[in-house]
Structures are given as C-alpha cells and as structure tokens.
Amino acid sequence: AKQKGNNRFQVYHPSMDIESYKLFTLEQDMRKAIQNDEFFLEYQPRVDTKTGKIVSAEALLRWNHPEWGRVSPLEFIPVAEETGLIINIGEYVIRKVCSQIYSWKERGLSIVPISVNISPLSFLKSCLVSTIKKALDENHLDASFIEIELTESSLISYSENVIAVLKELGEMGVKIALDDFGTGYSSITQLKNYKFDVLKIDKTFIQAMDKNAEDAIITANLIQLAHGLNMKVVAEGVETFEQFYSLRKNDCDQIQGYLFSKPIPPPAFEQKLLIGTLK
Ligand code: C2E
Ligand code: CA
Ligand code: CA
Ligand code: CA
Hints:
8-stranded mixed β-barrel, 9 strands, PAS domain S-box-containing protein/diguanylate cyclase (GGDEF)-like protein, binds ligand C2E, alpha/beta, disordered N terminus, binds calcium ion
C-alpha cells in the first residue's frame, strides 16, 4: 500500500482509486523524467506594445513522456506541487534558462530577459536565492536577465517567509512579476504585500475584453492602477488584433499571446531574436 511520506517504498495497490493511481504514476514518471532529461523549455516572446520589438520571453516547461508523448504542464505541475517535486523542477528551469541565455550571448544574439515560473512552494522549501545566484554566476549573467513569475497556488498563501525571499531577490536585481492577475487567488490585496515589478493580466480577462464592455473597463483601469504603483503591465493570451489595439490604446506595456507567437523551441526563438521585431 501507499505509505505517505516515504517515497522509496510506495507500491501501487489495486484498491487505490483511479485519481490516486494517476497521481502515483505521474509522480513516479516525473522523478524519472528529471533523470532522463525528458523535460525541455519553450520560449514565448513578450513584445513591446508601442514598438513591436521582443523585449522579453517566458520560459514554459514541456514534458515529452516516453509513452504518452507530450503531457501538458496544466496536468503535471499541480501534481509536482502536491508531491514537492516542483522544487526540483524549479531548480532545473533556473539552471536551464541561465545556460540558455549564456549560449545565446556567446553566439552574439541580442539577448533579452527571460521570465521563469516559480511556485510559491520553492520560496518556502528551498534555497531559491542561492540556486539563482549560483546559476547566474556560473553563466556570468547579470541578475536583470532573470525575472521570476510568481504563480499562484491554493496550497500556499503569502507568508512573511515568501515576502522575505521576494525582498532578497529584489535587492539582488531580479525582477518579480505577479502572474495570472485578476483570477483565482491573485487579488488586489496582494499588491500591498510586496512591490512587484510587473503585473501580468490573466488571459481570461484579456479574451473577454472584446465581448464584454465591463472587462474592457476593468482592464483599462487595472493598467492605470498598476502604473500608479510603478509596475509594468503585461497582457497574456492576446489572440486578436482587436485585443491588441485596445490594449495599446490603454497604455499596456507588453503583449504576450498567440497573435505574435506561440511558445516555441530555442531555434525558432533565436530566429525571432535575430529579426528583432515581430511586426
Ligand atoms: P502561465 O504561467 O499562465 O503561462 C501561460 C500559458 O498560456 C502557457 O500555457 C501558454 O502556452 C499559454 N498561452 C500563451 N499565449 C496564449 C494565447 O494567446 N492563448 C491561449 N489560449 N493560451 C496562451 P502552458 O505552457 O500550457 O502552461 C500552463 C501553465 O503551467 C502556466 O501558466 C504555468 O502556471 C504552468 N507552468 C508552465 N511551465 C512552468 C514551469 O516551468 N514552472 C512552473 N512552476 N509552472 C509552469
Ligand atoms: Ca507565467
Ligand atoms: Ca499567467
Ligand atoms: Ca496560469
């Protein structure tokens, strides 16, 4: 039977329900995935609304499962958070991104800051600051090339500890973005807890903008609010020109979404960096 808290001796038992079976299998496979190098990253450009230039990109984790093929992070990230594996994954992503930026720099590409998604769990349960410092040092990178996107989690709320780590990173020169703003656990109250550098407005909001006057008004005012608090604003999930024009009209700083580019593997991203602009 499954023994909680001791991962080495977990054995599947037929009485387990299908949900715990899935969880169990995913967890076992994820452990192997790190060792077997089945994870990789794609990069989605962030574009300056005024100039159309790529000013940043978000690193998004991909998993090529040996039997199932691609598994969506929407499926495996929640399991990784429940099992604590998200900490190993976070460290993997930070190391990978830093060595990727280094290799782009070496090859003479005009590099841009890359944002990485870090679970609040990593803020509490790991040496996040030293992991980031080490990865930056090893690749001779300035802290300004890394941005942390704080993903919301039902498991963890903002504690003093999380805020202390945020402050330490901020002092190092690492920018911090509040992800998925406007939905779920992310709320106005959080803007008081820490002075974020970037506010990412969630795609459900952006995509409702065309259809819904209220959403458009809320988005416009969110942008003003964020600017008033000295934050840059990124709109996520921009798919239509209508959304883009309306966001530009409302002074949104950056746009991320399928309209400009899906998340793409490094070689395709390098092509775009070479061209420099997407318009
Ligand atoms: P997220 O951080 O909100 O990332 C944005 C998601 O929106 C990505 O989904 C991206 O592919 C998708 N997206 C971008 N533009 C558009 C658009 O125009 N339309 C639509 N419909 N979708 C768009 P993805 O890659 O499937 O990732 C899902 C979530 O998984 C992420 O949401 C993030 O919460 C989590 N995740 C992904 N990679 C990592 C990671 O390395 N670490 C952690 N902790 N979480 C990750
Ligand atoms: Ca994100
Ligand atoms: Ca997001
Ligand atoms: Ca999200």
